[in-house]
Write a structure and sequence with these properties.
It is a single chain. This protein has 10 helices and 13 strands. It is of the alpha/beta class and 306 residues long. A 6-stranded mixed sheet has the order 5-6-7-3-8-9, sandwiched between helices. Strands 11-12-10-13 form a 4-stranded antiparallel sheet, with helices on one face. A hairpin with a 4-residue loop joins strand 11 and strand 12. Helix 3 crosses helix 4. The longest helix has 17 residues. It is globular. The two termini are 40 Å apart. 33% of the residues are buried. The model has no long low-confidence stretch (mean pLDDT 91). This is ATP-binding cassette domain-containing protein. GO terms for molecular function: ATP binding; ATP hydrolysis activity. InterPro entries: AAA+_ATPase, ABC_transporter-like_ATP-bd, ABC_transporter_ATP-binding, DrrA1/2-like_C, P-loop_NTPase. Belongs to the ABC transporter superfamily. Keywords: ATP-binding, Nodulation, Nucleotide-binding, Transport.
Length: 306
């Protein structure tokens, strides 16, 4: 399962344009083995184009692609599980039959695949639907079936494009747990999302794209440490009284209302104590004041604006 170079994915100098529109510009990406890496960015940033180049669905204008230690041969493809953003199942096929078919495409043993598929369907609460046609399932259920088809053959590399889109919170948590288990099994997971909160709860590494170019690349710990050192800090704040001082943009860069408290992003160069002093001078009764590291969402917004 180990890639000789220690990386499951290596892209170097990737560039892709569609006419006058630049989709990916001079993009590098290295994903170590047995790591969960998030490819993050707003819609239209270039995430799906990057994934399609990685999987040789489309060709790059220039640059090099290495997957699982070499070129993307048919043998290497069988070691990859891919969940595209645009889901695609055969609606007339029965669910279990469809999963066995997907396993066969990857060269898996039919009997073993069927046993695994039954176990997966039971785990994702779809066991009662095994003999139903795909078209009879809800959209969320179809998405779970396609996810099963992606992991069924125990791939070394999982490439998931917006895997949590359209799922309810319970199923999002279930799929996240499965992704963590796949990592523990030794698989590498690369998934794209525009949801920073989801990525923050699961990724060890993140790569952020904005307008076709990479703006951040590193472990989550490194990125948060750098943001803190650069002065990107926030305070979790709650208090009763006149809070109009929070409108002072020389003090506060932004405020997010989280219901029970406010997440206050400090302006450049402002220390948390300055915010507390302003609250005290305004006779605010402070019930919560907690200095917190910036969220991945806040880090990305700051980079995107820069």
């Amino acid at each position: 399962m180990n890639s000789p170079n220690g990386h499951a994915v290596r892209l170097q100098g990737i560039r892709k344009s569609y006419g006058s529109k630049l989709a990916v510009d001079d993009f590098d990406l290295e994903v170590p083995r047995a790591t969960i890496c998030g490819l993050l960015g707003p819609n239209g940033a270039g995430k799906t184009t990057t994934i399609r180049i990685l999987l040789d669905i489309i060709g790059a204008d220039r640059g090099s692609v290495e997957v699982l230690g070499g070129r993307l041969t048919p043998e290497v493809r069988d070691r990859i599980g891919y969940l595209p953003e645009e889901r695609g199942l055969y609606p007339k096929m029965r669910v279990l039959e469809h999963l066995v078919f997907l396993g066969a495409i990857k060269g898996a043993d039919r009997q073993e695949t069927e046993a695994r598929a039954v176990a997966w369907l039971d785990r994702l609460e779809l066991g009662a639907w095994a003999d139903k046609r795909v078209q009879d399932l809800s959209r969320g259920m179809q998405q779970k079936v396609q996810f099963i088809g992606t992991v069924l053959h125990e791939p070394e590399l999982l490439v998931l494009d917006e895997p949590f889109s359209g799922l309810d919170p319970l199923n999002v948590d279930l799929l996240k747990q499965i992704v963590l288990e796949e990592r523990d099994r030794g698989a590498t997971v690369l998934f794209s999302t525009h949801n920073m909160d989801q990525a923050e709860r699961i990724c060890e590494r993140v790569v952020m794209i904005r307008q076709a170019s990479k703006v951040l690349d590193g472990t989550l710990k490194e990125i948060k440490r750098d943001a803190w050192q650069e002065g990107q800090r926030r305070v979790l704040f709650a208090g009763d009284g006149d809070l109009s001082f929070l409108d002072d943009r020389s003090l506060v860069a932004g405020v997010q209302d989280n219901g029970t408290h406010l997440a206050v992003a400090l302006a450049d160069g402002v220390e948390p104590q300055e915010l507390l002093q302003r609250a005290i001078r305004a006779d605010v009764v402070v019930s919560r004041f907690e200095v917190s590291e910036p969220s991945l969402h806040e880090i990305f917004v700051a980079r995107a604006r820069g």
